[in-house]
């Protein structure tokens, strides 16, 4: 099936000649005819175009295969060997970023993979071989600023059937080792190994939450050459991750508006995201139907409710000149952030099945949006944006294992949960009751529920899934937009009345319907 026009990877393609040029500039001693290329079928990826590359190494004419050095080999015998090549097949993944993203997306994923390799060496993750921020200059671990150009090798590799004018230009890419396995399926989770899979995922999450250094700011990551002046919003995270390169935390790579100073704590971060969403709501024409009521409602929330939520009790201290000020007489307490995957969905978890049927996690992929975030963010993001990907029973096993590993925030530390149910009916624009039931968060205490409700507001102010290229009719567009408006309204009302809570046991809710909002988050 063709890639929909609304997807970032629409019309993003590399020719075989360009892919082979990337391989030849990234790997030593590979012949073109040893390279086979397999594109990931359309619809299997959203933000990127993926190609799988197999290197089928074979002996050249007159060469001998040597798999190891032994004491029986004499100097005379070794002199006869012209190659140390061993017949084998090695697999890689070429990931090309989609439209609408810039070099920061490449920098963020490369930084995250290198940091996981450094601080969590026991985890199975793809290994970085090379990358390009501009699509042309080849960057490697030994030469991270890059100097080699693809152009000549690409042109030399073109054959008569390939047209250079159809090549995607300026698209960043990365070449990674390919980890075996398939994405988790519902069948895997329903198997006798389903609980074991969730516990293994929890072990990955606990590893990076425990072993990655905490951050002094919130956001995604950038790579900067040592000696280069960092942007005003950047905060140093790790020095010398590569020769001459440091990692900094700087805002969010998907934000409509970038911050002008570091996001030092949870409240500062949320305030920035809401203001960025309001700017997008104002500037993007497709949101015109809800622009006025949404703006008025969210601005009141920003002024009258958000700063006083219990969730942010440790974020804001008035009238303290020693703390960072927002220029309005309020001061902020810096808070530590933790490494967060930010897209922990079954599609990003690989498993393998042994000959005797045992299913084990082989890797967790796609750290393209990962970064340093507030403690509850990993879980709030999943339960708001990816909730339909996980059934309640599976996610409960995941959280229980994290509790045993002391790797959950305090607001999720107890197996019981506190559920807030609206005690009043909403206005006439309220949709059917199921819309409200789908938004119930069946885990965590009141503070975690506040984190989820704030996340839901942020995601729905200018809903990212509503785009000009989505092909919606006017009625469908209004349905999506006013659905977002209702979700924001209900979330604000719930936050304002959060002192009315009901304590329940987790078991009461687990057999019920899946949780989350009514739209799925792609890739």
UniProtKB/TrEMBL annotation:
Q: Which organism is it from?
A: Exophiala mesophila (Black yeast-like fungus)
Q: Which SUPFAM superfamilies match?
A: Protein kinase-like (PK-like)
**Pfam families for the chain:** APH (PF01636)
Q: What is this protein called?
A: Aminoglycoside phosphotransferase domain-containing protein
Q: Which PANTHER family match?
A: AMINOGLYCOSIDE PHOSPHOTRANSFERASE DOMAIN-CONTAINING PROTEIN, AMINOGLYCOSIDE PHOSPHOTRANSFERASE-RELATED-RELATED
Q: Which residues form the Aminoglycoside phosphotransferase domain?
A: 273-397
